[in-house]
Design goal:
This protein has 928 residues and is of the alpha+beta class. The chain has 30 helices and 16 strands. The strands form five sheets. The protein has a six-stranded mixed β-sheet. Strands 2-5-6 form a three-stranded antiparallel β-sheet, with no helix packed on it.
């Protein structure tokens, strides 16, 4: 999966978020290519959903100059149901049926017309990788989007979840093509229910802070781009330097400007001077240590190893366990729960946020200490006062405490009162004063409060604050402390920048999930033994998952024992062939394998009357080399004639589908000479090559072989995901291409395989898994096993580790999870690849003798097929239930029918229980 081309979406002027209050039914007649529209249900009004009730979905029609349309479902179960219950319609593709989401519509835009329109995308095959609906998710409390590792109906929703659909493209890690709006901007207004009597946002004109001008002004205040030095001083102003670092990190996502400051502060002499003034082994200045930890977190550095100190460990180690009234008071401890030496509320808050953002649970008494500071008006004081002392609240402190307590959780009533206090303190102009007893509006306070209220869901009040700030920005880009004063102030400007960037201290310090770092590949590729004609024997006895249980899981979920469905009545032929490959590799259920093969070969039809060649498109202008190659390899593996399989000569079809040249006017058809038609991925190309070579047509496959080999990176040995579009190297594609090239005995081909296997071994993670589209992927690990087994002796250790990883992902029902750490529960697609891949048998030599099996009648097609038996709910081993049927978030060994499926398009099962994102191969993965 994985194009790295960024979606270029031109949002039209006046684009806005629209609340979906009603739904309309849009119908589309079923044509010859079975385009099917799923109608919407009665939509719940958006204001019925809150942070604790229901879920929100937002669909961005900005590619066509339209709005971001929101919808609500107060009782959601899956991402797919949320989309339709919120009033949206969808259309699938002719190739994959309604399961493959190709178009989305809503009556709030273009009178409900679905997009992309038929003129832009015919939806016969999978859309191209640069133009598809990508699926993004955010759980409660998350303020950054994550590319969904599961399909829409495989994703089970919780109250407060928010989903987004964006038309464009993304890369394999889901780091590009993100929504242009944040999760908080489309969540239900108000997040947690506001307190009764809260005022409405001020009625002010919209306005934005010129963040670029403000950051330029801040950058000009830095000496050597590293530090703030006050006029007349020589030593750095460390506090001001951290403030600038936060602002620059919010503005550019922790880019080079902020990292340069972090590098400076992370030098031991500066960390010591600022945070450890009493000495390296003494208690730190808690406020300074917290500020440095936040700088580290905002710029991708490790706060546990910053400037020679474990900042987070030192904070936890210096929490007060008693107060000043203790028999032997600890210096710097006023009461239990304080961080030593803080004294001020801000320091306590920053320490709590730093610990939370660094993955450390702060001591409960430290969080409780913050909550107990609340004044009668709901605000918080600037000092860590004790019982009986005067409590005078300040808006900026109140905002910081509310942000920290919201992040820590468990203090909803306190946070709600603080929100109410802030909203009541807002001036009609949108601003806030610096203190509860002052009257001039303050840019410093307004910046901090606007950050927090946006984070808590009060966007109207936050936007009013930005409106006021936009009118206060000085000509050079800076801000003064209070309204009407001409002197620029650094601290006011940093607060305004973070607010103007629509970020906050929690968001900018929360680390993005990253895939584990793979191990270092060997510097010199090992040599391999030329392939033999005898298939491998599979894994060593007792090593790896239980393949007999895995085979039973796959067989038990076939509809009538013949095929899988992606939606009611619509066969998922690619996934069905995947399962056949797995059964052929293990040999544990030859009877079921025979039934599947007979169904495909002898005219079997699904509930819509489609046969296997309605999927391969053989004999049509859409004939796909990957689809045809996938079916041909199965025929070859089980002893059937690929020149007469399902009534088609698949080998001649492959030979006739070799592109003589690129087709710029039809970019998906032919990327270059030697490419198979509509083989838009390395997987597709590899399957076609394997099929031709196994059929003895190596000479006829010369150009496809040469083209496949030309796609290998000569420096690394890896192959990319996609053909004809920019994409990065990928485990799955490299393993598949290696299996194809390994069939060629010449020295150059074997050297190419050697290099590919060395690269694969270097991608292995510490736990034995391999990185893939869904994270630490079962699919990728299984394919890597097949690739590395081409030289099993050299790679015995990584093979054993990879099989152990697969064992750890097998559930008690015999099926496998999609990925380690993902939504648990057995998934048919992941299981098909895991079962076959664990044997280590290459598709190039896969063989299973079906003699001795008995032909059984092929079930007659019916207009109303029985309910599919392909949904599994997991068990104790798999964790919580997963309605994960044939789709899955990955396609086992599939070629990408087009670039989209390879990258991450949403494959959605309509209506009855299992929808997935086809982020991987389509040809051998069930989407091909």
């Amino acid at each position: 999966m994985g194009t790295e081309q960024k979606a270029k979406r031109g949002a039209g002027a006046g684009r806005r978020l629209l609340s979906l209050l009603t739904a309309s039914l849009v119908t589309l007649g079923a044509g010859a290519v079975f385009l099917t529209t799923a109608p919407p249900a009665e939509a719940d009004p958006v204001d019925r959903c809150t942070r604790t009730t229901g879920a929100i979905v937002a669909v961005d029609f900005g590619r066509w100059g339209g709005p971001v349309v929101r919808g609500c479902d107060t009782t959601p179960t899956t991402g797919y149901e949320l989309l339709h219950s919120a009033g949206f319609t969808t259309t699938g593709t002719g190739h994959d049926g309604p399961a493959f989401l190709c178009r989305i519509g809503n009556k709030a835009f273009a009178k409900g017309r679905e997009h992309p329109t038929p003129a832009e995308e015919d939806c016969v095959l999978t859309p191209q990788a640069t133009a598809y609906w990508s699926y993004w998710i955010a759980s409660p409390g998350q303020r950054k989007w994550t590319y969904s590792p599961l399909g829409a109906m495989s994703r089970t929703l919780k109250p407060g979840d928010v989903d987004a659909w964006v038309f464009g493209a993304t890369d394999i890690g889901g780091t590009k093509g993100r929504p242009s709006f944040t999760p908080d901007e489309v969540r239900a207004e108000g997040g947690d229910p506001p307190a009764p009597g809260d005022p409405a946002p001020p009625n002010v004109p919209p306005g934005t802070v010129d963040v670029s001008a403000a950051t330029r002004w801040l950058a000009d205040r830095l000496t050597n781009g590293q530090r703030v030095v006050d006029e007349g001083a020589t030593d750095p102003n460390y506090l001001a330097t951290t403030e600038v670092a936060y602002a620059l990190a919010a503005a550019d996502g922790g880019g080079p400007a902020a990292r340069r400051i972090a590098d400076f502060l992370g030098r031991p002499e500066h960390t010591g001077a600022y945070a450890y003034p009493a000495g390296k082994d003494q208690a730190p200045d808690a406020t300074a240590a917290a500020r440095l930890a936040l700088v580290a977190e905002a710029t991708g550095k490790d706060p546990r190893a910053f400037g020679g100190h474990d900042l987070l460990g030192d904070l936890v180690a210096n929490v007060c366990h008693s107060g000043a009234d203790a028999p032997q008071p600890v210096p710097g401890c006023a009461t239990r729960g304080d961080f030593r030496t803080t004294g001020q509320t801000e320091g306590q808050v920053l320490a709590v946020i730093a610990l939370l953002s660094g993955g450390v649970t702060p001591p409960a008494e430290s969080v409780t200490r913050l909550a107990q500071l609340q004044c009668d008006d709901g605000g918080f004081p600037s000092f860590l006062i004790l019982d009986g002392q005067v409590c005078e609240s300040e808006p900026h402190t109140t905002a910081l405490v509310a942000l920290a307590l919201q992040r820590a959780g468990g203090h909803l009533p306190v946070v709600t009162r603080a929100r109410s206090s802030l909203k009541k303190a807002q001036f009609p102009t949108g601003a806030w004063a610096a203190t509860s007893y002052s009257s001039p509006a303050s840019a410093y306070a307004t910046g901090w409060v606007a950050q927090t209220l946006r984070a808590l869901g009060d966007r109207g009040h936050a936007d009013a604050g930005l409106s006021w700030l936009s009118r206060q920005q000085l000509p050079g880009g800076s801000f003064s402390f209070e309204e009407g004063t001409p002197d620029p102030l650094l601290h006011a400007t940093t607060a305004a920048v973070v607010a103007g960037a629509k970020s906050d201290l929690v968001t900018l310090t929360t680390k993005e999930p990253e895939p584990p770092t793979p191990t270092t590949p060997p510097t010199t590729p090992p040599t391999t033994t030329p392939p033999t004609t005898t298939p491998p024997t599979g894994p060593p006895a007792g090593e790896g998952p239980d393949l007999k249980k895995g085979s039973a899981y796959l067989a038990g979920r076939l509809v009538q024992g013949r095929y899988y469905e992606s939606s009611r009545g619509f066969a998922e032929y690619g996934l069905t062939i995947d399962a056949a490959y797995a059964l052929a590799a293990t040999g544990h259920d030859n009877t079921t394998l025979r039934n599947v093969v007979d169904f495909l070969d002898k005219g079997g039809k699904d509930g819509t009357g489609r046969g296997v060649h309605d999927w391969t498109k053989a004999g049509t202008k859409y004939a796909g080399g990957g689809f045809i190659g996938k079916a041909a390899v199965l025929a070859e593996a089980v002893g059937r004639d690929p020149r007469n399989f399902g009534g088609r000569d698949l080998i001649s079809a492959l030979a006739g589908g070799v592109c003589p040249a690129a087709t710029p006017k039809e970019p998906r058809k032919c990327a270059a000479r030697g490419n198979y038609t509509y083989a838009t991925s390395v997987f597709s190309q590899s399957l076609g090559v394997i099929a031709q070579v196994r059929a003895g047509e190596t000479a006829a496959a010369a150009e496809p072989i040469a083209y496949l080999k030309s796609l290998q990176d000569p420096a690394t040995g890896a192959w990319p995901s996609l053909i004809g579009e920019k994409s990065g190297p990928e485990v799955d594609s490299t393993a598949m291409a290696a299996m194809a090239v390994d069939l060629l005995p010449d020295a150059a081909s074997q050297a190419a395989v050697d290099k590919a296997l060395a690269w694969l071994a270097g991608r292995q993670l510490a736990d034995g898994g391999f990185p893939g589209a869904s994270g630490n992927s079962v699919n990728s690990a299984a394919l890597a096993i097949q690739g590395l087994s081409l030289d099993a002796e050299t790679y015995a250790v990584p093979l054993a580790k990879a099989r152990k990883f697969l064992l750890s992902q097998q559930n008690k029902d015999g099926g496998f999870n999609v990925a380690k750490g993902g939504q648990p529960g057995s998934d048919v697609r992941a299981s098909a690849q895991a079962v076959g891949g664990a044997t280590g048998i290459s598709f190039g030599v896969l063989t299973r003798d079906l003699s001795g099996t008995t032909a059984q009648p092929v079930p007659a097609p019916t207009g109303t097929p029985s309910a599919p038996a392909i949904v599994t709910t997991g068990d104790e081993a798999g964790g919580s239930a997963s309605a994960s049927g044939p789709g899955g978030s990955l396609a086992s060994t599939g070629s990408r029918a087009t670039g989209l499926a390879a990258t991450a398009v949403a494959l959605v099962l309509a209506g009855w229980g299992t929808v997935h994102i086809a982020r991987r191969r389509e040809t051998t993965g069930g989407q091909a």
